[in-house]
Amino acid sequence: MDPRRRQIQGSHASIGSFAEEKRSQVDASQIGNKLRYSGSHLPEDIWRHICYFLPLKDAARAACVSRAFRSSWSCHPNLTFSKETLGYGPPAWSRKREVMDYMENARTQRKTAGDYNSRVDHILRNHSGTGVKTLSLGFYGPYNANTSYCLDGWLQIAVTPGIEELSLILHSKSDHLSKKAIYNFPCPLLSNGSGNTIRELHLVGCAFRPTAGFGCMRSLTSLYLCCVNIESAELGFLLSSSVALERLELTSCSEIISIKIPARLKCLSYLKVSQCSMLQVIESKAPNISSFHFVGEQVQLFLGESSQVKTIFISHSCVLHYARAMLPSSTPNLETLNIVSTGEMISTPMLPSKFLHLKYLTITGWTIATTYDIFSLVSFLDASPCLETFCLNASRRRQKHDSIFEDPSHLERTPGHCYGNLRHVKITSFCSSKLLVKLTCHILENTPSLECLTLDITHGGLKCSDKRFSKCSVVRKATLVEAPKALEAIRAYIAGKVPSTAKLIVLEPCNQCNTVGI
Question: CA angle at residue 282 from 254 to 323, to 5 degrees?
Fold first, then answer.
């Protein structure tokens, strides 16, 4: 190639690069001017609308770099304060130097709590107090004489007419929920019109004392109280003012003796009561409760004669006897029943009452007495003509002197009802117990529609066969000792009775994950 031509091409190339660079600079300048021009003339309500979609941390950062966002930040509608949202990670903990690390961790927690409270205070003091839709406030201490004053001030700023979601969570110094209330929520704050717009109220670890003159909460649809000091009458005042309530959850509220739900709560569909230690009575006249969840000691339960309850989770001592005797008449429309027994002493009685609509039955037995006859669970099967799925977990049932190999007699077919709709049966913690084998055989002999029988020799839980988990749950040594006997019982007494139209699945302990010296 001619040298002059190469030189000319090189000159054109450098000239082109220079021109391109200048065009980029001009375009960037024009874009910057255009952005500054557009930004300065956007209406304030548009900036607020943009800010509405930003998380709290991002909105705060934007306010630091943009004058337009700064005014919008003072009206941010969603205020969520927790250690996570404000950038505080969990405190470091070393097991090798427990004493020194504990002291250092305590100092770190105090410093973190102080910094956290300062940030929350700064943000709320600079907020206009208008336009707040959501306030979620986690408080971690320190707890002293100024705590009440500090929290009152924050709530007064943010809880104004128009707020829709309010959550206050008080943690103890160890970051666990405090059992003793250390703060009295200012109920008058909800009586000035602010309570009218709240749809969700979530309180943890405080005292809540509504009075007879408590204001109307006509928009409240969801109420959650956990570790809250509130008496039965005070709860009644709150419920009577919440005519739109759809979900009610009460957990570890130790002052409640009775729960009385008025008939005017026609929208209430979900009721959960858990670990309220002093509770004696639950009486509901709400006509449309469809789901009921209860954990605790046995109480007097009245859900109304025309109850529409379709789903129940219930857990307390001797609950199997209670559920079989009481639920068919009190919940005639029940479709799903999940029972967890924390100590069954008396075998389930055979009764004429029926679960006419029950389709899904799950029974879990914890610390069931050796005198309990697990075969008596056929009472539930006989009473449920529409049952489709039955799951049994007797994971802590003692099996001493109950092996099928010690006494294989009396396994002949027991007359019973035909379970014409039962298709899926699963027994977890299956073992060589004679009564458990007898129950399984009875189900096989009376279930012509069976599609799948699953016998899990483990205690359930995670399994490495599921690709989502890398390791199985820990299996106790006693389970590994029992596993060969359970497999032999399945081969000898059960496998031959599984119809050709049904599938038998046996889940064994994983040798790789649960190898234990025996």
Answer: 110
State CA 499 to chain mean position distance: 39
Residue by residue, DSSP assigns 247-273 as EEEEES-TT--EEEE-TT-TT--EEEE
Over its C-alpha atoms, the chain yields an Rg (Å, rounded) of 32
Give the length of the chain.
518
Model-wide pTM > 0.85: no
Following DSSP, what letter does each residue of 136-153 receive, concatenated? EEEE----STHHHHHHHH
pLDDT category of residue 99 using cuts at 50, 70 and 90: very low
* Burial group, residue 282, by CB count within 10 angstroms (0-12, 13-18, 19+): buried
Range 127-309 classified under CATH 1.10.3470: no
Nearest residue to 422 via CA among 462, 461, 459, 452: 452
Angle in degrees, CA 111, 115, 118, rounded to 5? 140
Structure-derived torsion over alpha carbons of residues 10, 15, 17, 21, reported in degrees to the nearest 10: 160
Helix then strand then coil, in percent of the chain rounded to 5, is 35, 20, 45
Q: Is-contact 245 268, C-beta < 8 A?
A: yes
Name the DSSP letter for residue 316. Answer: E
Distance from C-alpha of 512 to C-alpha of 484, rounded to nearest angstrom: 16
- Cα separation, 304 vs 285, in Å, equals 6
φ and ψ of 431, to 5 deg? -145, -175
**pLDDT > 80? residue 15:** no
Is residue 54's pLDDT more than 90?
no
Q: Is 177 helix (H, G, I), strand (E, B) or coil?
A: strand
CA distance 517 to 473: 17
Measured from the Cβ of residue 257, the count of other Cβ atoms closer than 10 Å reads 14
Are the CB atoms for 127 and 75 separated by under 8 Å?
A: yes
Rounded to whole angstroms, the Cα distance separating 205 from 201 reads: 13
- Please state the domain extents for the chain: 51-77, 127-309
Average pLDDT, the chain: 79
Backbone φ and ψ of 484, nearest 5°: -60, -35
